[in-house]
Specification:
This protein has 631 residues and is an alpha+beta fold. The protein contains 24 helices and 20 strands. The strands form 4 sheets. The chain has a 7-stranded antiparallel β-sheet, with helices on one face. A 6-stranded antiparallel β-sheet has the order 5-6-7-8-12-13, with helices on one face. The chain has a 5-stranded parallel β-sheet with strand order 15-14-18-19-20, with helices on both faces. Strand 18, helix 17 and strand 19 form a beta-alpha-beta unit. Helix 2 packs across helix 10, helix 7 packs across helix 9 and helix 18 crosses helix 20. The longest helix has 26 residues. The radius of gyration is 28 Å and the shape is globular. 47% of the residues are buried.
């Protein structure tokens, strides 16, 4: 119920034919530019803090610009960017705009390679200089590099140290800039390798330039750039000479999808984006495999190449539950399955009383899981009807059949998102009061004091909105019982691969567990975990274990659920409240191909994740728990 900032969105388009082709077939040379706009709008769910686009024009003559970039901040960044680009054409006559040779020579963003990016900050760093794409300039076209990505690296300090040891001097300490400098450095070396080869062949002047541009191997650049990064990523790039690439992390954490035919090569963070924008079938689109790169050469030749050996199979399950577009065929079915699998647990919570139970959902991202739960209830009621008829032991009368068949599952639209809390209100009491009114309810939707009210959410992370708004406002309907259902398991551990959940104390499940440890006098376990985390941090990353998992071992899921309810219940609410979470086993049953479950299990796919989780517990003890005062 609390919006999370998360991984970014990427979009790439490479035209494989001259601009004249698209102008004749589709009626405009802006075909790719228009498609890029659609792709980015379809990925708007992945970034609302900023956006940027870039374009490379092939065949430009010296003295003319051939790389273009436009960036903007804020939720309206996409519209602002494309308005700015299109406004640059308004002073040209229609005759000029239809003259493709003139367009190619004179108009900005009239090229063959396009890149788009939508940003959500996972580091808290603000400002236009942190908005992708990033651009590294050079007088040699082949050395110009434009970079964007959906990534978060866990070992940026190690890579930074490596760069500075080589004598480089990165201007900004961030994974994006450091990656740009590292990859740019390796691109320089690749260009110089070809320069030497060209000289050895007896080539001179512009002959050398053409040789370099025709023989740059981005696979070499990526192998030497990405081999030491630890994290989840999809990194995309364009070079000034016309190379395009997209590489996925070897643990398969972050997703990328691509499509190619004889006209285009396109890449996006989500499959439905490509389906809708280019009118494709699901089967037309390929997923970029772990450690692989999609490489499109200046000539238009395209290949998928294994750059890094696959190191894991940890595609992010939380992305499927919450972040990705639910219009994807597989994701839709997975979310329905997540909801349906909770049927028995919810039925147990309401004592199988389907006649006096109303099902609903909040927020809208939980709607598909709600349909699954609804389907599960319908199956239960259907079997209940059959058994009731069989139990009669005789041919039923019309009245008996009518009574039995009238049994149904009740569902209502109970909660509505009503307002957005404005950031200019900073005084805490005012903010809390307004937060309690973010949602509104449908009055009269349940029978007061008679009906159980079941509300399903896709996940429960911090619990803040539950406490400050949802529970209190649902209580106004006077239900017999409130059952809050999460289609995801308890979120217990931070994420370090691109989702804004880096601190343990943010999670209501962790806070509840720490309270239980104190209540039961298990201070020694807290003490041991703190010191064990410190000891692990002294080891090489590859040998570390996640000691934070130890704090959960004394308690069942039900123990933690009860404590969460106790902590989140508003003081003036007396209605019985129950929490129902998906199990980890249920998660994998519903989403078998996405095994990345570190949010729920603490089993991080990379050594860097384990290290940062141990560090997070040390930080928590010393900052929030005030370890020095307790022991």
């Amino acid at each position: 119920m609390e919006p999370l900032k998360h991984e970014c969105g990427i979009a790439l388009i490479r035209l494989l034919k001259p601009l004249e082709y698209y102008h004749q077939k589709y009626g405009t040379w802006m075909y790719a530019l228009n498609k890029l706009y659609l792709m980015m709008e379809k990925e708007h769910n992945r970034g609302q803090e900023g956006a940027g686009i870039a374009c490379v024009k092939l065949g430009a003559q010296p003295g003319n610009e051939y790389m273009f970039r436009e960036r903007a901040e804020g939720k309206d960044a996409i519209q602002n960017i494309f308005s700015s680009v299109y406004s640059q054409y308004k002073d040209f006559s229609q005759e000029r705009l239809n003259d493709i040779e003139y367009v190619k020579e004179n108009l900005p963003f009239a090229g063959e390679l396009y890149m788009g990016h939508l940003r959500y900050s996972t580091t808290g760093k603000k400002g236009i200089r942190f908005v992708h794409p990033f651009l590294r300039r050079n007088n040699w076209k082949a050395k110009n590099l434009c970079l964007c990505g959906n990534f978060n690296m866990t070992n940026i300090e190690e890579v930074f140290e490596r760069l500075t040891r080589q004598g480089q001097f990165p201007r900004i300490y961030s994974d994006s800039y450091i990656m740009l400098e590292l990859m740019g450095h390796r691109l320089d070396r690749e260009v110089e390798r070809n320069f030497v080869e060209a000289q050895e062949r007896g080539l001179k002047d512009t002959e050398i330039t053409h040789y370099i541009e025709d023989h740059v191997e981005m696979a070499n650049v990526l192998k030497t750039s990405m081999e030491n990064f630890d994290g989840g990523y999809v990194v995309c790039g364009l070079t000034g000479s016309g190379e395009m690439f997209s590489i996925r992390d070897p643990w398969a954490i972050r997703p990328a999808y691509y499509y190619r035919n004889d006209e285009i090569v396109v890449v996006a963070s989500e499959r439905p984006v490509l389906q809708t924008t280019f009118e494709l079938e699901c089967e037309d689109i390929q997923e970029l495999r772990p450690g692989c790169a999609l490489l499109v050469k200046r000539s238009g030749e395209c290949e998928v190449k294994q750059i890094l050996d696959q190191k894991g199979d940890s595609a992010c399950s939380f992305e499927r539950i919450y972040f990705s577009r639910g219009s994807d065929k597989d994701i839709y079915l997975e979310r329905k399955k997540l909801g349906e699998q909770l049927t028995q647990l919810v039925l147990a919570s309401v004592d199988n009383d389907t006649e006096h139970t109303v099902l609903s959902f909040v927020p809208n991202t939980a709607e598909v899981a709600f349909y699954g739960l609804l389907e599960g209830f319908r199956k239960f009621v259907h079997e209940k009807k059959i058994q009731a008829i069989l139990d009669l032991g005789h041919t039923p009368t019309h009245e008996e059949l009518d009574k039995i068949l009238s049994l149904s599952v009740r569902s209502e639209k109970v909660a509505w998102k009503d307002i957005k809390l404005r950031t200019f209100i900073t005084e805490s009491k005012s903010r809390n009061d307004l937060a309690s009114h973010v949602y509104d309810i449908t009055y009269g939707s349940i029978e007061p004091y008679m009906d159980n009210l079941v509300i399903i959410d896709d996940s429960i992370v911090r619990g803040t909105t539950l406490k400050e708004s949802i529970i209190r406002i649902l209580d106004r309907l006077h239900p017999k019982k409130i059952v809050v259902v999460s289609s995801a398991p308890q979120i217990r551990y931070p994420d370090y691969y691109g989702i804004d959940m880096p601190r343990l104390e943010e999670f209501c499940a962790f806070r509840a567990t720490m309270e239980l440890l104190k209540e039961r006098g298990l201070y020694q376990l807290i003490d041991d975990t703190y010191h064990n985390c410190q000891q692990e941090l002294l080891k090489p990353k590859s040998e570390m274990r996640n000691c934070v998992r130890d704090v959960y071992r004394p308690f069942s899921i039900e123990d933690i659920n009860k404590k969460i309810v106790e902590m989140l219940r508003p003081a003036d609410v007396t209605t019985p409240i129950d929490l129902v979470f998906q199990s980890v086993e249920g998660l994998h049953k519903a989403i078998p191909e996405h095994k990345g479950d570190w949010y729920f299990t603490g089993k991080y796919p990379t050594p860097g994740g384990t290290k940062l989780c141990n560090q997070a517990f040390v930080n928590y003890m010393e900052r929030v728990y005030q370890y020095e005062q307790k022991f």
